[in-house]
TrEMBL record, chain A:
InterPro entries: AA_ABC_transptr_permease_3TM, ArtM/GltK/GlnP/TcyL/YhdX-like, MetI-like, MetI-like_sf. It is a multi-pass membrane protein. Belongs to the binding-protein-dependent transport system permease family. HisMQ subfamily. This is Amino acid ABC transporter permease. It is found in: Cell inner membrane; Cell membrane. GO terms for biological process: amino acid transport. GO terms for molecular function: transmembrane transporter activity. It comes from the Bacteria. The chain crosses the membrane at residues 25-45, 92-116, 137-158, 188-210, 222-246, 266-290, 376-397. Keywords: Amino-acid transport, Cell membrane, Membrane, Transmembrane, Transmembrane helix, Transport. Gene3D superfamilies: MetI-like.
From TrEMBL, chain B:
Keywords: Signal, Transport. The keyword Disulfide bond does not apply. It comes from the Bacteria. One of its GO terms (biological process) is amino acid transport. Gene3D superfamilies: Periplasmic binding protein-like II. This is Amino acid ABC transporter substrate-binding protein. Pfam families: SBP_bac_3 (PF00497). InterPro entries: Bact_solute-bind_prot3, Solute-binding_3/MltF_N. Residues 33-262 form the Solute-binding protein family 3/N-terminal domain. Belongs to the bacterial solute-binding protein 3 family. It comes from Pelagivirga sediminicola.
Length: 406, 339
């Protein structure tokens, strides 16, 4: 028995919008949509009229005017006379830098901790459990501040390295660890450096091709070719050869401890605030990723492991060939959220004075110009764009590893 | 087959920008408490003491206004603000008055739509360095790492000064004075820069203040002024004349010791009579009663007494009056006449 009767063909009446089940859902959706639009229009109009009443207007002209402040870390040319827009770009690049490096390091921490937490060794698995619980259950801001305080108070002051007769010598003569950051040599690219780089990139491609060949041989003839030594040789030998053939085109600009009485000059300074932010974000997010990895591995039924063992595979190969490919399907979707979280958490940079987008555009520029709405709008747009981009990339990757149903 | 997509109800938080254009005086009276924005903690200017009571030079301004308007110097809700949050707090109506060593500048006055009601401290930006560095002038600081509070004019002056002298520096942006102090003492920066008064105040809290020197260069003019929202002239007048009353009281010789005697009855000095309300009706013109200024002065004494108690040479901060002396003593303090 059915409660639905076949509607009559033809002859549409307005009353059918409510009475006919074919149209009713659309009617209510249209009403809801209109209500939503009206609500947003009301809020927007309210904002505009209040702004006008307060004598404020929306204008982005301030982006072109002089910023007037210095920033600690700029990946592109920047001085205090650069525009506010240039300062915003400096901030954007700093945010991207800490987000990309943070995601990479968090993945490393997470995979290692997640796999080791399932170890049969009691001590190892307990240590990893302690790591996960300690870092997952304390707010990331606290970790950032703790690590920053540790860096500033535990590392030696820069002055110890300075002068003809310093209290401390640089590690290997080129690296200095100070509470202002870590100073490392900066590569100097001379003529011919491009050739060396090209050779390096080509050898990376060669490694990928060789590995594909190894897999193919395994599947077609069952022979296992060696991978470790050929990979290492391909990675190092051609590049080193090219380096010497081209007459050592890549030099290093080591940090200089003599030219200034306050600071180490030259080289690359990895600032203390960056180290604190990067490390705190990756170790915190790593704890979450560890749980994702553990969940993913445990989601693969133990029958798979046992079957692989019965075939004579060694534990490492079982993990690589049988468990991880299946676990990845479970791991990737929550991993996307963790990457998004890390990127957004990087806005806590302001706590340690790292010059990210929130600190430059959303901090000093906003404060100096008083253009709060414009600045906040731009920052929202930026984080939205970055988050969506991460989602897209990770979803593409997810599609490539997920179960192919045929 | 029908797929019905249900649009969930969207809870919309209505944002009603506080269009508090007028009537702050009435609001404060109705509330019975003055919401006063102060610094998060700068000894001598605004910081809670051992008992949790807010004390300091700027705090006294809040108490004087509360005493004038509400008759009780303790009817103040102190709202700690950072360099970044202070302006939003004021323009959104969260606070009625911002008394937080804030520099009076053109763009803050005109573009940010605030009303600076008069300078209560003439300051200038300076540098503090450890004595061990053997620096005697700010011009020797080429290449130094400098801690600077972010979101303040300090940051802009610093960039200008180094640019003008064609020397370089590395900024370490910090959020609060406490953080700057920690970074400076750990040696993460070579020098700390902020207003001279702030440096003196910070140095006073060090374990060994003698090991740090303030450099002689003053690289900017920093007239620190309390401020209110633009467009509420009645309220601005109340705050402006409370400050003027404190300054005029010092000039006229009204102190917390003799104020009871002077206000008992009209004396020989007409200016004192008008300030203390024993003659004329200046208070009513302000929308208050005639004893408003008397209460404001009784809250913490006149300008000179407030200065000496909180930041003067006898206090741990140890600042000389300098530019902040009365005009009759060669300073810049000059209150308009009460008539």
């Amino acid at each position: 028995m059915t409660t639905m009767t076949d509607p009559e063909k033809g002859g549409f009446h307005v009353s059918q919008l409510l009475s006919d089940t074919r149209y009713r859902a659309y009617t209510f959706q249209a009403i809801a949509l209109i209500a939503l639009i009206v609500a947003f229009a009301y809020l927007g109009a309210n904002l505009v009229s209040n702004l006008r009443a307060a004598g404020l207007d929306i204008s982005f002209k301030f982006l072109g005017s002089e910023a007037g402040y210095g920033v600690e870390q700029a990946l592109i040319p920047y001085t205090s006379q650069s525009s506010n827009w240039q300062a915003a770009k400096v901030g954007i690049l700093n945010t991207l830098l800490v987000a990309v490096l943070g995601c990479a390091m968090a993945t490393v921490f997470g995979v290692i901790a997640g796999v080791l937490r399932l170890s049969n060794n009691w001590i190892v698995s307990r240590i990893m459990a302690a790591y996960v619980e300690a870092f997952r259950n304390v707010p990331v801001l606290i970790w950032i501040l703790i690590i920053y305080a540790a860096v500033t108070n535990a590392f030696p002051v820069a002055r110890d390295y300075l002068g003809e007769d310093p209290e401390r010598n640089m590690m290997f003569g080129v690296m200095a660890f100070t509470n202002r950051g870590v100073y490392v040599p900066m590569p100097v690219w001379n003529a011919g450096a491009a050739v060396v780089l090209a050779v390096f990139v080509l050898s990376l491609i060669a490694i990928a091709l060789y590995r594909r060949h190894v897999t193919k041989t395994l599947f077609s003839s069952g022979r296992i070719l060696p991978t470790f030594w050929p990979t290492l040789a391909l990675l190092i030998v051609p590049t080193v050869l090219a380096y010497f053939i081209m007459g050592r085109p890549i030099g290093f600009d080591a940090p200089d401890t003599l030219s200034n009485r306050f600071n180490i000059q030259g080289g690359v300074q990895i600032s203390a605030s960056f180290i604190a932010l990067w490390f705190a974000l990756s170790i915190y997010t790593g704890a979450f990723i560890a749980e994702n990895v553990r969940a993913g591995i445990q989601a693969v039924s133990s029958g798979q492991t046992e079957a692989a063992a019965a075939l004579g595979l060694r534990p490492r190969r079982i993990m690589k060939l049988v468990v991880l490919p299946q676990a990845l399907r479970v791991i990737i979707p929550p991993l996307i959220s963790q990457y998004l979280n890390l990127t957004k958490n990087s806005s806590l940079a302001i706590a340690v004075g790292y010059s990210d987008i929130t600190a430059t555009l959303g901090g000093i520029t906003l404060n100096k110009t008083g253009r709060a709405i414009e600045c906040v709008l731009l920052i929202m747009l930026f984080y939205l764009a970055i988050s969506l981009a991460i989602s897209v990339v990770m979803n593409i990757y997810n599609n490539s590893v997920k179960l192919k149903e045929r | 087959m029908k797929k019905s997509v249900i649009l969930g109800a969207l809870a919309l938080a209505g944002v009603s920008a506080g269009a508090a254009a007028a009537g702050t005086l009435d609001d404060v009276k109705a509330r019975g408490k003055l919401n006063c924005g102060v610094v998060t903690g700068l000894v001598g200017f605004g910081a809670p003491d051992a008992n949790g009571e807010w004390q300091g030079f700027d705090v006294s301004m809040c108490r004087a206004v509360a005493a004038a308007v509400l008759g009780d110097p303790n009817a103040v809700q102190f709202v700690p603000t950072t360099g970044k949050t202070r302006f939003t707090a004021l323009s959104s109506g969260e606070i009625d008055l911002l008394a937080r060593n804030t520099t009076w500048t053109f763009s803050r006055d005109v573009d940010l739509k605030f009303e600076f009601i008069g300078v209560n401290y003439y300051d200038g930006q300076g540098f503090m360095v450890p004595k061990a560095l053997n620096v005697s002038s700010a011009k020797d600081l080429d290449g130094a790492t400098i801690c600077v509070q972010t979101g303040t004019t300090t940051e802009l002056n610093l960039a200008d000064y180094f640019r003008k002298n064609n020397i370089s520096y590395e900024p370490v942006p910090i959020e609060t004075n406490a953080e700057g102090q920690q970074q400076y003492l750990a040696g993460a920066c070579d020098a700390y820069t902020t207003d001279m008064s702030g440096l003196a105040s910070t140095r006073a809290t060090f374990e060994a203040p003698g090991e740090h020197v303030l450099l002689p260069e003053i690289i900017s003019k920093e007239p620190l002024a309390p401020l209110v929202r633009h467009g509420d002239n009645e309220w601005a007048d109340v705050v402006r004349w409370t400050l003027n009353a404190l300054i005029a009281a010092e000039e006229a010789g009204i102190t917390s010791a003799n104020i009871g005697e002077l206000s008992a009855q009209a004396g020989d000095a007409p200016e004192i009579n008008r300030i203390l309300g024993t003659e004329g009706d200046l208070g009513e013109m302000l929308g208050l009663d005639n004893e408003w200024a008397k209460r404001a002065i009784m809250a913490g004494g006149n300008y000179g007494e407030i200065f000496e108690k909180n930041i003067g040479e006898a206090s741990p901060i140890g600042l000389a009056r300098g530019l902040n002396a009365q005009w009759t003593d060669g300073g810049l303090l000059y209150a308009p006449p009460f008539r």
